[in-house]
């Protein structure tokens, strides 16, 4: 079996963490035997914009779609291109055009990493975020002028996308800790969130073995910080999920560790796998970027393609590396990007 990957290192530290992750994928393919990766490299990013006036080539989406998945580093270099142009011209364009309607982000604390949590070992959860609509809609506008000016921003919640996110969360929970928490705010948001609650109740009846709770996003955010060990799978709207996953990354110890998957569920387009972090201009070129976000992202991709055994091997190698204290400076270590990557690679077998 050959998996065809569209590889976009992008900008900044994307170029420092992507090659190592590809090497790890190749090694895992060899270990498995008969699993090959074919990488098609794309130089899309801010330099492409400076040269051609566009973040990706005009036939970029078409060419990316010939692959089984997109493996992306990070996008953005504000010295060259304003961030809203680079982000919308590449990352968000791919998410929208490839109908990647679900965003999944795990969070956990690895042994060996300092954590303020009482029971860091029990902190191991997944946030499933609706990735296509909700609060991030373009419905609304600005009207009137000066002191009379009004901005109206409507959220859009469709039954289809809402139930899809919830089904995904319940299926995931069924294979894990058998608990789903819904992030709601039906006491304050009058139309959308009572609807969200109704759909959640309806879908939950299909999963009698999975227990459920529903928590208002304000209270949930607070207890996410103080007692995140209580959660297993959280399902959230676009905005709530965005906020929760950044808190999750902070609890993990560094944004440099956090992975994410943007999933296309209708099978028409590739899914995209990318770390949560950006291009980190403040540390670019120093060789100290944490490669684990990108490498853990590769594990999520392996899981997605059904190679969960390889995914577990990879996670184990990351855990063993941290346990030995081999880590980059963002999480209190002194190892380089290369040293951490090599250690993980060497532990695979
Ligand atoms: P950032 O994630 O690039 O950096 C935030 C902080 O975290 C910095 O101090 C950075 O050094 C550190 N950091 C990030 N990744 C790290 C890693 N792997 N190892 C060690 N430290 C790491 O976010 P920032 O500074 O807000 O944005 C920088 C650029 O990245 C902007 O152009 C922004 O638009 C873009 N960006 C792109 C994203 C993406 O491609 N998904 C996500 C977030 C930002
Ligand atoms: Mg965010």
UniProtKB/TrEMBL annotation:
Q: What class of enzyme is it?
A: oxidoreductase
Catalysed reaction(s) here are: (R)-malate + NAD(+) = pyruvate + CO2 + NADH
Instruction: Enumerate the UniProt keywords alphabetically.
Output: Manganese, Metal-binding, NAD, Oxidoreductase
Q: GO molecular-function annotation terms?
A: D-malate dehydrogenase (decarboxylating) (NAD+) activity; magnesium ion binding; NAD binding
Q: Which InterPro entries match?
A: ICDH/IPMDH (IPR050501), IsoCit/isopropylmalate_DH_CS (IPR019818), IsoPropMal-DH-like_dom (IPR024084), TTC_DH (IPR011829)
Q: Which cofactor does it need?
A: Mn(2+); Mg(2+)
The family annotation for this protein states: Belongs to the isocitrate and isopropylmalate dehydrogenases family.
Identification of the protein by name: D-malate dehydrogenase (decarboxylating)
From which organism does this entry originate?
Lacicoccus alkaliphilus DSM 16010
Read off the lineage from the record: Bacteria, Bacillati, Bacillota, Bacilli, Bacillales
